[in-house]
Structure formats: structure tokens, C-alpha cells
Amino acid sequence: MSAHILDGKALAADLRTELLARTSALRERGIHPKLTIVFVGENESSVAYVRNLVRTGERVGVEVEVARLPENATSVVVRTLLERLRDDARVHGVMLQQPLPPHLSIRELADAIPVNKDVDGTHPTNQGNLAFGSGTEFVPATPAAVMLLLERSPHWPLRGRRTVMIGRSVVVGAPVAMLMLAQDATVTVLHKESASLQPYLRMAEVVVVATGVPGLIGGADIAPGATVIDVGTTVVDGVLKGDVDFASAVEVAGAITPVPGGVGPVTNVALLRNVVKSAERSVG
Q1: Per-residue pLDDT reduced to its tens digit, 224-243
Q2: What are the angstrom distances between the C-alpha of 142 and each of 175, 236, 269?
Q3: If you placed Cys at 69, which of 73, 113, 175, 267 could pair as Cys (CB 3.0 to 4.6 Å)?
Q4: CATH number for the domain running over 141-264
């Protein structure tokens, strides 16, 4: 039997309806939710991502402004812009688009993002609160999308579940592991230096994969009935591929996200939810 498809497009549509109601209520009070994206350079994948955010913002009543800086912008220039946005009362969310040009480091810039407007959870304070399970202000968009999809899986709630996170990046892998731990899951983190993915992978009830290696995980690797969340997005011969070989995994898993159409559509809405949350907080 084929797995239940965790449809990110359908979930995103439901979330957009919810957001539109919330932004309409804010506008009635004279508050116009606004996100400013600081975008350094011309990274092609970032251009597409930001374009989609602008379109999604228009659909849910959030203004998305893109503050462009040249490829050779210095860290001082970037920090100055981020710090100026901290004091702009019209802006409710600030995001520094990644990846950055090679000469810039997110570690050197993250603390300049206004912590109370850090809607993608990049500031060290928000990352620290997430790691300590002490209630971060904003959960990063992609990890938030993963959790929203897991909430609609047959293995929710996660309490006591055997879960595996493949990938340990500070953008996805580590935050997702922390969020699953906060739900009382038993979490194993595997990565490129792990001696083997087995037997941990085959024992897992929930598998989240974020490695950027197309087709890394197949149906033979997972336990029958497992929930599989595929965060990978790699273009191969003009086709978007995930980290999971969908054709084989869908025949074994109990629930699975497709690529495209899984985590991606939910990520944009999760980010804009944080912007709306910030705007609502500004009026109490």
C-alpha cells in the first residue's frame, strides 16, 4: 500500500486563509504587517525564493520589501542596514537572506539582526533559546514547516517516538532535532561523518532528511509505516529532486512528503506567520 501523502500545498493554503484573517484584523487597527529582506548579491536560488515570498505576502496581506545590497557589500554596510531596521516601527520582521557571498559570514552578522524582529530565528539569542528549549521568540521557517507537517502525520504526537534527523546544519538539522526533543521524542542525529545510517534509520518511526544529497534514502532503508519528511531540494537535469527516492519510499512509508510540494510551500507561510505574530505583538 502506498503511503499517505503529506500535502504541503494543501497545508499552505489552509495557513494562508488563517493568515489573511489575521492581517485583515490588523489592518482594521491601522497596522500593516511588513517584512524586510536584506539581500546581498544575486544568488539565483535566493532570487527565486524571495520572489515567491513576495507573491505569498501579497496573497496574505503582508508587505514584503527587498533591500538589495551589491555582491561586494562589506559586513559594516550590512550591519548598518540591519541595525537601522531595528528602529523602523513600520517593519515587523527582518531577515538576512542566505547564502551570503563568500566574503561574508552569518556568524559575524547574525547578532545585528533585530532580535525582536528576527522572524527566521537567526539571531544567537533566538538560536540559544531554541537549543535550551526555553521558548524562542521565532522558530526558523523551514524547521517550523517540518513540525507543521509532522503535526498532520500518523505519528503525532511525538512523545516517546523513535525519530531520526539526517543532517545537522544550523539552518535545518539542528533546530529540527531540538524541536522534536521539545516534543519528548527520542532523537538520533545522523550526518555525513556518521559511520552508518543503520540500524538507527530502520528503527525510526519518524525520519527527517536534510542533506542536499538527491536520492540518499530509499524504501529499503526505512521501517514499514514510518513517517518521512524530505527537506532536500536539488535540481538534477532540470528536475527538482529530494533527498528521498520517492518512488521506492512511498511504497514502504506510512506517510511521506513529496518534492516538490511538501516542505517548500509551507516554509514561506511559516515565515510570514512569524511576521504576523510580530505585528500582533506590536499592538498587544
Answers
A1: 999 999 999 988 898 999 99
A2: 9, 22, 10
A3: 73
A4: 3.40.50.720
